[in-house]
Design goal:
The chain is of the alpha/beta class. The protein has a single domain, classed as FAD/NAD(P)-binding domain. The protein is 28% helix and 23% strand. It contains four helices and twelve strands. The strands form four sheets. A five-stranded parallel sheet has the order 5-2-1-9-12, with helices on one face. A three-stranded antiparallel sheet has the order 6-7-8, with no helix packed on it. Strands 3-4 form a two-stranded antiparallel sheet. Helix 1 runs parallel beside helix 2 (53-66) and helix 1 runs parallel beside helix 4. The longest helix is centred in the last third of the chain and has 20 residues, at 152-171. Bound molecules: flavin-adenine dinucleotide. Flavin-adenine dinucleotide (FAD) binds next to helix 1, strand 3 and helix 4.
């Protein structure tokens, strides 16, 4: 059973998965690489002067897999509460349960709405600064949380904030993911 299920494989979902997998959290990401990034030419992602969205996605998918995140091409059809966690049902009927869910569904947050979260075309789904929704253990990141102001780097930042919050909850104290170069 994964610790965290991420639904959506755009920059929001992949960024959350990166921070989690890099810190030994068992995370699975569901998505078919149908992200809006496949239409983008990024010139506003700090640190990368210019990159095709498709190439960004290829690198990001490889990066998270190398840290141990599992990427699955299934579509998630439904979500239901299961004790203090959440069970997702995949197309085909397979079910998976985890304590935490990160929803990064993009412009059409069907599953979030199915959970009863209110979606407003202008303001998206309400979250706190750590991407927590009003449902315990459910995080909403990226375009679903700010539909009219969607940028790749903001989605990636949201995913990072959600992951750091989950890591802090699991560890019981504030967590930062800081690395240093080797000492010479
Ligand atoms: C033409 C165009 C040009 C753009 N140019 C730029 C640019 O220059 N710079 C910039 O910063 N941004 C640009 N963007 C916006 C950028 O693509 C988005 O900000 C970014 O993709 C949002 O990331 P996200 O992770 O929030 O959502 P998305 O990238 O939309 O990812 C959501 C993913 O979730 C998947 N998904 C949804 N529901 C399910 C489900 N039930 N089960 C499994 N998977 C599911 C979807 O298939 C999709 O892959 C552009 C967008 C377009 C369309």
């Amino acid at each position: 059973m994964p610790d965290v299920i991420v639904i959506g494989d755009g920059p929001g979902g992949l960024s959350a998965a990166l921070f989690l997998a890099k810190n030994q959290i068992d995370v699975v990401v569901f998505g078919q690489d149908k992200t809006a990034m496949n239409y983008a030419l990024l010139r506003n992602y700090l640190g990368i002067p210019e990159i095709l969205g498709t190439e960004f996605q290829r690198i990001a998918r490889k990066q998270i897999a190398e840290h141990g995140a599992r990427l699955r091409g299934d579509s998630v059809e439904a979500i239901a509460q299961a004790g203090d966690g959440w069970t997702v049902t995949l197309e085909g009927g397979e079910k998976q349960t985890a304590r935490y869910l990160v929803l990064s569904e993009g412009k059409g947050p069907r599953l979030a709405k199915q959970l009863g979260l209110q979606f407003d075309e202008h303001n998206g789904i309400a979250t706190d600064r750590n991407a927590r929704s009003s449902l315990d253990g459910v995080y909403i990141v990226g375009r679903s949380a700010r539909p009219g102001r969607s940028q790749a780097i903001i989605s990636a930042g949201d995913g990072a904030a959600a992951a750091i919050d989950i890591l802090s909850r699991i560890k019981g104290e504030n967590f930062v993911d800081w690395d240093e170069p080797p000492k010479t």
